[in-house]
Amino acid sequence: MTRPERKARTRDELLAAAGAVFMRRGFHGASLEEIADEAGYTKGAVYSNFADKDALFVAVLEARYERRVEIYTQMILEQDADLDDALLAVTRFMADADTREPAWLPLLAEFVSHASRHDRTRREYLRVREGFLQTIAGVIAALGTRHGVTFRVSPLEAARASSVLLRGVSAERLLDPELVSADLFVELHTALLRGLIVREAGAS
Hints:
By secondary structure, this protein is mostly helical. The protein has helices spanning 3-25, 32-39, 43-49, 53-77, 83-100, 104-115, 119-147, 155-175, 182-196; strands spanning 149-151, 197-199. It has two domains: 1-50, Arc Repressor Mutant, subunit A; 52-199, Tetracycline Repressor, domain 2, CATH 1.10.357.10.
């Protein structure tokens, strides 16, 4: 294995360990020492790859967003499904992912609150966040082209609205899981997306 390959593997293992520790401890509760230990490295290995804990979390988030883009692209553009089925598949995936990892969105909310008080971190978070939404907007635009539909708002704002709804539902469920079920999210999110679509005559 070459030196660049070893460095890439170390970084990937640190990101995986950081994701697990952040989910378990929360952003503020996680320490770089525990993350390094989880990955089987020293704390120095963390600092050789990431400037600080904020930068490490942003990197975890960026890697997570990259995986989500791959999944959404496959569901929306690479499957032979009609428009309604594609929207429903993505919505169910979002609901299932939130159910499987109930700590993720509260963790993200904790980090966003932290980032809002630290300008450099806030700007880095926004860079990654807006990049993700722009990419999803491209997928939404391609979906519209494929099925001959347009949207009442820009694809970027449709992507943002989808994310805002998911975060809001997650926050409500954090307070009381019985208030908002996964099925209710599926119904609300599907209704939101369908309401944003303008179908032309003969569109699928």
